[in-house]
Amino acid sequence: MTGTTTQSTDAEQLRGRIAAELRRARARTALLTEAVDEADLVRQHSPLMSPLVWDLAHVGNQEELWLVRDVGGREPVRRDIDDLYDAFKQPRRDRPTLPLLPPREARAYLLTVRDKVLDLLDRVAFTERPLVADGFAFGMIVQHEQQHDETMLATHQLRAGAPVLHAPPPPEPTARVGAEVLVPAGEFTMGTDTDPWALDNERPAHRVRLPAYVIDAAPVTNGRYREFIADGGYDDPRWWSPAGWRHRREAGLSAPMHWRRDGDGWACRRFGRWAAVRDDEPVVHVCFHEAQAYAAWAGKRLPTEAEWEKAARWDPATGRSRRYPWGDDDPTAEHANLGQRHLWPAPVGAYPAGASPLGVHQLIGDVWEWTSTPFRGHPGFTAFPYREYSEVFFGDEHRVLRGGSFGTDRAACRGTFRNWDFPIRRQIFSGFRCARDARPEEAQP
C-alpha cells in the first residue's frame, strides 16, 4: 500500500510541475505576442525570422500533434493547418505569404488545445512508454515553446519602431574574475542518461578523455572585442578562415550586429533603444566566423564542445559531472542571467554563485557560446521521438552553441543542452569564449 501511495504522490507532483511549466511558457508567449499590435504580429521583420503570428500558432500546433493526438489519442482540433505550421515544409522566407491564422483565431486555437491538454494531464498515466515516462512528451513541448519564445525575442530585437519590451538591467559585478582557467587532463562524463527531460541529442552519457587545456574564465567582453576591431581585425585575412573571410566580405561585416559608431566609441541597439557599448559585458550578436577570427587574433581558438562541457560540468573533487556548473539544483536569479529576466548580457562577475568548481564564470545564460564542433550525435545516439528534432541537422553545416543566453528559459537550458546554427548566423544571442592548449609547464599536476 505504501508503494502505491508513493507512486500516486509522485505522479501528482509531476502533474503539478508540468502544469506550472506549461503555464509559465504560455505566459511568456502571451507577453511577446501581446506587446505589439496586429500589424506587427503579421509582419515579417526579417527574412531570417517568421512573422510572430506564425510562431504563435506553431507552438499550439506542436502541442496538439504530440499531446492531444499522440499522447491523448484524441481527435484533431485543426488538421487542416498542419502543413501551414510544419517548419520543414514552410521556409521562413515564405511564411508571410501563407494563409496563416489571424491573431484572434490563433489565440483561440491555442486556448482550445491547452484546455484539452490540461484535461489529458489530469488523466494520463506516466507509464513505461518512453514518450510518456517521467512526463517526457510534456517536457518536450514546454521546451519547444520556450525555444520559440527565445526566437520571438530575437524577432523583437530585429523589429523597427518604438520599444515595447521592458526589463530591469542585469545585476552589477560582485566578483573579480581572472583571465583563464586550467582544466586538467583526464576523463569526464559527457551527455546524460538520467535527466528525464533531456532531448535526444544530449544522450547517451559517455566518457571523454581530454588533454589539459586552458579556457577563458568568462565570455569575451565588448571591451576586448573592441580591441580586435581597433586593431583592424575585420580587415586582416590572416585571422579568418577562407569561408569566414569570404562571408565577411560578402556580408560587409565590420562590427557585431546592432552596433554603430558613436563619436569615438560604439553604441548598440537593444530592443529599440540605443545605449553606449559597455566594455565589461559579454559581446553578443557575433557569428561563428567572427568568433573564430577574434580567437585567432588573440592567439587562441574556440573551445571544442567537449572542452566547453567539461569546464561547465566536471567537479574535480568528486570526478562526477554536475547538471549545472554550480551543482544539480535548478538555476535561480543568483546563478545565471536566464529567462528574459533582463534584456541584455550581465557584466562579467555578476553571478559568482553560478561559477564552476574550477572558477569558470557565466557558462549558463548571458550569451550562447560558439564552439568549434560540428553538430553530430553523441556515440550511440538514437533519434527520439522523431528524426527531425536533431538528426536531420547533423553534419558540417552547423556549429554547436552551448550554455544558453539571457533569452533562454531554465527549462531549455542545462549543462548538457545543445544548440546549433549556421556559422553565419548572428541574429541569435550568440557570443563566445576562447580556449588554448595547455603549455607543458601548465599541464604538470
List the helices and strands and how they pair.
Blueprint: H1 2-34, H2 38-42, H3 52-71, H4 103-123, H5 136-158, E1 180-183, E2 186-190, E3 206-210, E4 213-216, H6 222-230, H7 242-251, E5 259-262, E6 265-270, E7 273-276, H8 288-297, H9 305-313, E8 368-375, E9 395-402, E10 418-421, E11 430-431, E12 435-437, H10 440-443
Helix pairs in contact: 1-5, 3-4, 3-5, 7-8
Summarize the structure.
The protein has 445 residues and is of the alpha+beta class.
Labels describing this entry:
Four Helix Bundle (Hemerythrin (Met), subunit A); paralog of FGE (formylglycine-generating enzyme); 32% helix; four-stranded mixed beta sheet; 13% strand; globular; alpha+beta; 445 residues
- Poorly predicted spans: none
Class computed from helices, strands and strand pairing: alpha+beta
Mean pLDDT: 96
Distance between termini? 54 Å
Q: What is the CA-based Rg, rounded?
A: 22 Å
What's the CATH class label of the largest domain? Alpha Beta
Approximate strand percentage: 5-15%
Number of strands: 12
Rough outline: globular
**Main β sheet profile:** 4 strands, mixed
Please describe what this structure looks like.
By secondary structure, the protein is an alpha+beta fold. The protein has helices spanning 2-34, 38-42, 52-71, 103-123, 136-158, 222-230, 242-251, 288-297, 305-313, 440-443, and strands at 180-183, 186-190, 206-210, 213-216, 259-262, 265-270, 273-276, 368-375, 395-402, 418-421, 430-431, 435-437. The strands form 4 sheets. It has a 4-stranded mixed sheet with strand order 10-9-8-11. A 3-stranded antiparallel sheet has the order 1-4-12, with helices on one face. Strand 5 and strand 6 form a beta hairpin. Helix 1 (2-34) runs parallel beside helix 5, helix 3 runs parallel beside helix 4 (103-123) and helix 3 packs antiparallel against helix 5. The longest helix is centred in the N-terminal third of the chain and has 33 residues, at 2-34. It is globular, with a radius of gyration of 22 Å.
